[in-house]
UniProtKB/TrEMBL annotation, chain A:
<protein>
    <submittedName>
        <fullName>Hydrocarbon-binding protein</fullName>
    </submittedName>
</protein>
<dbReference type="InterPro" id="IPR024096">
    <property type="entry name" value="NO_sig/Golgi_transp_ligand-bd"/>
</dbReference>
UniProtKB/TrEMBL annotation, chain B:
<dbReference type="GO" id="GO:0016740">
    <property type="term" value="F:transferase activity"/>
</dbReference>
<dbReference type="Pfam" id="PF03259">
    <property type="entry name" value="Robl_LC7"/>
</dbReference>
<feature type="domain" description="Roadblock/LAMTOR2">
    <location>
        <begin position="7"/>
        <end position="96"/>
    </location>
</feature>
<dbReference type="InterPro" id="IPR004942">
    <property type="entry name" value="Roadblock/LAMTOR2_dom"/>
</dbReference>
<keyword id="KW-0808">Transferase</keyword>
<dbReference type="InterPro" id="IPR053141">
    <property type="entry name" value="Mycobact_SerProt_Inhib_Rv3364c"/>
</dbReference>
<protein>
    <submittedName>
        <fullName>Diacylglyceryl transferase</fullName>
    </submittedName>
</protein>
Amino acid sequence: MSNPLTSRPTLGQFSSIVCFKAVITGMEEALGEKATSIALIAAGRQRGKNLAKELGLSGASQDLDLIADKLNEAIGANGTHLAAIEKIVAQGDVIKVYCSETICSAGEPQGSDRKCTFTLGAVWGALSEITGKKLRGTHTESVLRGGTNDVFEYTTLT
Amino acid sequence: MSISNIDGILQNFVSGTADVQGAALVSPDGLPLASTLPGTMDEERTSAMCAAMLSLGERIGKELSRGNVDRILVEGENGYGILMGCGDDAVLLVLASKSAKQGLLMLEIKRAVSEIKVALS
């Protein structure tokens, strides 16, 4: 991929949330919410896997604090601005990822039933690549529905 | 859900059914659960495609008043790709050669779906 800073010397590498959300709602209009969700989660997983590989984290660590720091650096305020990763904790067999300012929830009204798809997938793909485990992810708490964070839960498939 | 049981069911189905070249079971959100696909196929990409395709088929069925979707059949010059829902929890993909008899194939797929549904429950 060419360097976005050289291919867009004036506009740089960032685009508006408004346009990103228009892509999502446009896809939902054409393909339906479910098919769109599947496609975006799959795209996110691919992105997360590639990101973990680029960061040299494949199979590298089971230290969740370290993983949270590395991912936050890559996709948070100092990275691509997809979401801020606040913490990652293990509760039994479940890995819980606490995010804030996710792009999926941005600009949505309180009470909206929108769920994270691309962001859920991106963290999912990265965690799978880093831990070497086959995971299944769901978006369990949302800032749009009374939560303090967008929380993603990942369970290992046995 | 025990993936190893489902792996066994898929392997028996593929090895025991004439003209079947591969099969995969994927979650409705496009996650590969078990597969016996040819090595050249990317499991994750295939799974996402299958789940999206079935979902799109269901939308077509609804929007165009075709009713509930029983299966989705892709017929290419080299054979068939068939998608069938396995309840709410999974989607079955079956790849078969061009020489497969469609009626027999559908019968075998329905048998496999019944077995998978029991394993998933």
